[in-house]
Specification:
2 copies of one chain form a homodimer. Chain A is an alpha+beta fold. Chain A starts with 7 loop residues before the first helix and ends in a 13-residue tail after the last strand.
Amino acid sequence: MLPTIATIGSMARQSTDVGSERILMGHGAGGRRMHRLITEMFIRRFGNPVLSRLDDAAVLPTLRGRQAVSTDTFVVDPLFFPGGDIGKLAVCGTVNDVAMMGGDPRHLTLGFVMREGLELEALDRICRSIAATAKRAGVQVVTGDTKVIEHGDDHGLYINTTGFGPVPSRLVLGTEAVRSGDAVIINGPIGEHEAAVAVARGAFRFRGPVRSDCAPLNKLVKGALAVGGVRMMRDPTRGGLATTLNEVTDATGLGIVIEESAVPVSKHVRGVAGLLGLDPFYMANEGKVIVFASTAKADKVVAAMRRRATGRTSRRIGEVVREPEGVWLRTRIGSLRPLIMLEGEQLPRIC
Amino acid sequence: MLPTIATIGSMARQSTDVGSERILMGHGAGGRRMHRLITEMFIRRFGNPVLSRLDDAAVLPTLRGRQAVSTDTFVVDPLFFPGGDIGKLAVCGTVNDVAMMGGDPRHLTLGFVMREGLELEALDRICRSIAATAKRAGVQVVTGDTKVIEHGDDHGLYINTTGFGPVPSRLVLGTEAVRSGDAVIINGPIGEHEAAVAVARGAFRFRGPVRSDCAPLNKLVKGALAVGGVRMMRDPTRGGLATTLNEVTDATGLGIVIEESAVPVSKHVRGVAGLLGLDPFYMANEGKVIVFASTAKADKVVAAMRRRATGRTSRRIGEVVREPEGVWLRTRIGSLRPLIMLEGEQLPRIC
């Protein structure tokens, strides 16, 4: 719900000194102060003909075909971390969820909840990051909302994004399409996002280039789908690779065997995980996709994924089996170890 | 982003004792604990074939025609107030914004940010309220997201809703359709929502039946549109009637004259406003719509609105004029007083 303003054009031409200010309660109260924030920052960064109308709702032209729709609120702490920030994360998270269902993300809504005292300069940096990531992913911000809550104990910004986009008419993806024998593919090393956020919290000293993998995957996914043979996809965010695989075995009643030696984990992620007592298999990713593909097409799918920057090190890491049920790790010494779903005790507020 | 679970059926059949528990950080961590919350509460309350799949994104059938899309995050404090709660508000707010653009709201996404320590019983009450309001408005919850943040200084729940629905193909609504001479219509007394939230905060003693007007207006709006002659609609939420009218005059360059004696304000709202030094014209509403209609059709639009429960006391309150520009109140003694847009200092966190 954004109100209409006639002065968008003239205000956008003024230069704005947002650097010296902080968010006040009045920025969320619906009056002139909120309108200035919307026009001088949000319209300036995300402006397009639909958003700039600032009506109660955006009106989009007819959306062709089935639509994939996803919503996510981001509460990551801190707001900035190596490899990204809450803005980049908010775009990637929703773009990726739409892409996982085969949707081609086009439109995004943005809901800001800001704490009083948030620096406008930080907010503007985050807005620029949202704009850059949206451009990279090919999505448009079509409508938004701004709320302000009292000064408090955290860094002070939560962002909801809701996105949608058309799904090709004949595409069938989902757990019901998964078959015994299907290959399990991942597009790169695991645990990087959670490791980067942990390091950014600064609770311990860590030297080493740990960066979040946060990235929009819609173009990578499109390339994989073009090959054919893809049964389903899912992005292993909160709960990591192990949790996501358990969701799939829970839903299919099948088993999955993962080759421990095939799963890429960087030395630095292992280091952070070791320091914090975390298991990389349960650590969150924000730029990874697990692709289930038929044996016949698996190599071609991997090859297609490797052609994209976000999939250079794509590889098969395992296989769907009729039994044993559940998720299993074939260790380097050849034994099978169960990878169960945890109750939920990894790091909080990683996305 | 909700993960898939095979056990939905069996878990939904179990009875759940949510009364004795509170939200823990683990409810947002992606593991079993989060999955139980999703299936035992969210699926149970909002379950439908699309949502119950719990995929990364919902896939909706082809959406016919142009789509109105709106997003809103609700941070109201306290969570429960006379006449509603944050759940009812979250459904009505977005349903109404979609309806204001002529959209027929059908689908809703739900993003929860919960504070550690939130009582599950309160959450369940809010979920039941969401379900009941969604049913009344005719919208379906199609996908959702759950985040948990640390225990803190407020009551602990923020809800984002994003909604969309088709706009009739020939309908043209918007500030550009407003003409000098158009009638300004409202569906009932102003200021009730803000007054109810103020009373619920309990900072002062107030005896009197003040209830929020929070209600879905999509059916009322549909009735008004069926008459024809409607130029635009807007719901006077944050900032109230005065702010909304200023948005319209800002966008059109026209003037609006409101008859003070025609604007309904209850005795109790006047009482609360007096105690707190608020002006009812700037107080938030959550079940009001301002309709701009051609003079020729205005009486018929009012009559159509009066046929709905949410529009029994609909009436004309003013007129669009070529000049003077801006918003003016014709007082009971006949003078014109400007109704400007405030900087934004009414009550915080009213929606």
